[in-house]
Amino acid sequence: MDITFKNFDLLTDRKLVIVKWRDIVATAGWQPSDEVDCPIIESVGWLIEHEDITTIKICNTISEDIEEGSGNEREYGITAFPRGCVISLEFLSHEVSNELE
Predict the structure, then answer these.
(1) CA neighbor of 86 nearest in space, from 54, 51, 60, 59
(2) What is the CB neighbour count within 10 angstroms for residue 19?
(3) Predicted TM-score of the model (pTM)
(4) Is residue 58 part of a domain?
(5) 39: domain range?
(6) Which residues is 74 bridged to in the sheet?
(7) Tell me, what DSSP letter sits at residue 68?
(8) Residue 3 belongs to some domain of the structure
(9) Sheet holding 16-22, edge to edge
């Protein structure tokens, strides 16, 4: 099977990250406070650069813009983290290839 991809530039300039963050929990029962803890979660995605310093955003999908040949790209599957919930941001290395084995 011959599969080729049109625009690998969509991924080569992107930063792949793991966001380690503390989730918020609310209870509706009668749990004592010492039994309620905020879980730590890790999410993986492509870092989205934006102006808001209070939020970190990642996406799980990058696509060429619908207008063919525009050269623009769009992010989808966005997760936005309030900066105060983020414990760490780990940058991953990745290699982009046009060959499938």
Answers:
(1) 54
(2) 21
(3) 0.76
(4) yes
(5) 9-24+34-92
(6) 63
(7) T
(8) no
(9) 73-82, 55-64, 40-48, 16-22, 86-92
Cα radius of gyration (the chain): 18
How many domains is the chain built from? 1
Residue 50 CB-half CA count within 13 A: 15
Contacts of 36 (CB under 8 A, 6+ apart): 25, 27
Residue type, 46: W
Cβ-proximal residues to 8 (8 Å cutoff; 6+ apart), any chain: 96, 98
For residue 97, being part of any structural domain is answered with: no
Which pLDDT tens digit goes with each residue over 33-66? 999 999 999 999 999 998 999 999 999 998 876 6
Q: Quick count: other Cβ atoms within 10 Å of Cβ 45? A: 21
